[in-house]
Amino acid sequence: MAIALSELVGYVAASLTTAALIPQALLIWRTRRAEGVSIGMYIVFSTGVALWIAYGLSARAWPVVVANVVTLGFSLWILAMKLRFERATRHGAKPMQ
Amino acid sequence: MAIALSELVGYVAASLTTAALIPQALLIWRTRRAEGVSIGMYIVFSTGVALWIAYGLSARAWPVVVANVVTLGFSLWILAMKLRFERATRHGAKPMQ
């Protein structure tokens, strides 16, 4: 089953835009810091990704569903860490340098 | 021309995941700070978005092209600011509180 080149480009694009959140999540996890990270971004981004999942389900586009479920997981993880470490920093906890 | 509900969901999803980068770009622009922002994320993300543009061109999916050209613009802006303000901070410039 030869996969069309453009379809392959689509799969690689989906993998990269999903995987891109990993370095950001690990940076926050490692340094316990997220001051420069925008809460607004991850609220809007998570909402958009949730809608991509709804779109994928309705269009039976399973790669769109799978890629965006993984992306939503990372996006919500980043949001949760941002809220948690921001509260900790406000209550005097020292972020790791 | 009635637009299918699922197509509408797709357009809203694309707009949100594109617009999501705006609060992050403005936060960095306003505070001149980007310590918590991951360079790795925006390099991988920009590469993925560029591939989405190539996919959209090859599949003649113009909404995919338009949304991702805008996204690429914001992603590269964030990357450029990250590199610029990081260098400035290393050379003793005071970030805005």
Automatic annotation (TrEMBL), chains A, B:
<feature type="transmembrane region" description="Helical">
    <location>
        <begin position="12"/>
        <end position="29"/>
    </location>
</feature>
<keyword id="KW-0472">Membrane</keyword>
<dbReference type="InterPro" id="IPR006603">
    <property type="entry name" value="PQ-loop_rpt"/>
</dbReference>
<feature type="transmembrane region" description="Helical">
    <location>
        <begin position="61"/>
        <end position="80"/>
    </location>
</feature>
<keyword id="KW-0812">Transmembrane</keyword>
<dbReference type="InterPro" id="IPR047662">
    <property type="entry name" value="SemiSWEET"/>
</dbReference>
<feature type="transmembrane region" description="Helical">
    <location>
        <begin position="36"/>
        <end position="55"/>
    </location>
</feature>
<dbReference type="Pfam" id="PF04193">
    <property type="entry name" value="PQ-loop"/>
</dbReference>
<keyword id="KW-1133">Transmembrane helix</keyword>
<protein>
    <submittedName>
        <fullName>SemiSWEET transporter</fullName>
    </submittedName>
</protein>
